Amino acid sequence: MTARHTDRYRSNRVPFWSLLDDAARLALRRIGDLETFAAKDNLLQENDLTDHLLVVRRGCVKVTALSADGYQAVLAIRNAGDLLGEQAGLDGGPRSATLTALTTVEALVMPASAFRDAARHHSAIAAAMQQVLSARLRDADSQRTSTGGEAIQARLAALLLELGERYGRRGDSGALLIALPLSQDDIAGLVLGSRRTVSRILEQWRGNGWVTTGRNRLVVENPDALKRECGEGP
């Protein structure tokens, strides 16, 4: 897979928690509480006026937001080590997105005021925050660029390959079962396409024997074919 197609989905960024030193981690553990969320639970709700921040310690989270016309866009998938809720937690505004657990999630939940105080006393926290925010701005720029310049087939192929790499379970035949409960609406949101278009492409790929789909189930049967679709391979 070429970087041009996969930068939007591939998580090359170092997670927030991994950027911290031991003293900073201890400080955050002291101000936070570990909470567990079942799959499909909301960790945060768009437009709420809460001000806490979270660090995912285990599990996978979907980030979504509603557009003015009611379309739910899937903005990102976050994983262990990622910082969540930092925007509203730091500026006091309403939540800009809903965070939903895709799997069982364990998260460190921290009051914003205590987090800001810890950041003042531990430069590693402030530096990690800056790096995370900068990386997310770069990701947003990359997303806009790829959406304007790539065919949706290439974006979809890159996404499925990345999901297979990060969350897939490989079978004896080499197929990758993507073990995340993502609907076709979710997948369409991640590639900024319509559900109708994504369904049509997946139907074609099913006919080619490249993928198998079911209710919240997707198997990449032929990863090499998808690599060719997004520009890698002969």
UniProtKB/TrEMBL annotation:
<dbReference type="InterPro" id="IPR012318">
    <property type="entry name" value="HTH_CRP"/>
</dbReference>
<dbReference type="InterPro" id="IPR036390">
    <property type="entry name" value="WH_DNA-bd_sf"/>
</dbReference>
<dbReference type="Pfam" id="PF00027">
    <property type="entry name" value="cNMP_binding"/>
</dbReference>
<dbReference type="InterPro" id="IPR000595">
    <property type="entry name" value="cNMP-bd_dom"/>
</dbReference>
<keyword id="KW-0805">Transcription regulation</keyword>
<protein>
    <submittedName>
        <fullName>Crp/Fnr family transcriptional regulator</fullName>
    </submittedName>
</protein>
<dbReference type="InterPro" id="IPR036388">
    <property type="entry name" value="WH-like_DNA-bd_sf"/>
</dbReference>
<dbReference type="Pfam" id="PF13545">
    <property type="entry name" value="HTH_Crp_2"/>
</dbReference>
<dbReference type="InterPro" id="IPR014710">
    <property type="entry name" value="RmlC-like_jellyroll"/>
</dbReference>
<feature type="domain" description="Cyclic nucleotide-binding">
    <location>
        <begin position="16"/>
        <end position="116"/>
    </location>
</feature>
<feature type="domain" description="HTH crp-type">
    <location>
        <begin position="150"/>
        <end position="224"/>
    </location>
</feature>
<keyword id="KW-0804">Transcription</keyword>
<dbReference type="InterPro" id="IPR018490">
    <property type="entry name" value="cNMP-bd_dom_sf"/>
</dbReference>
<dbReference type="InterPro" id="IPR050397">
    <property type="entry name" value="Env_Response_Regulators"/>
</dbReference>
<keyword id="KW-0238">DNA-binding</keyword>
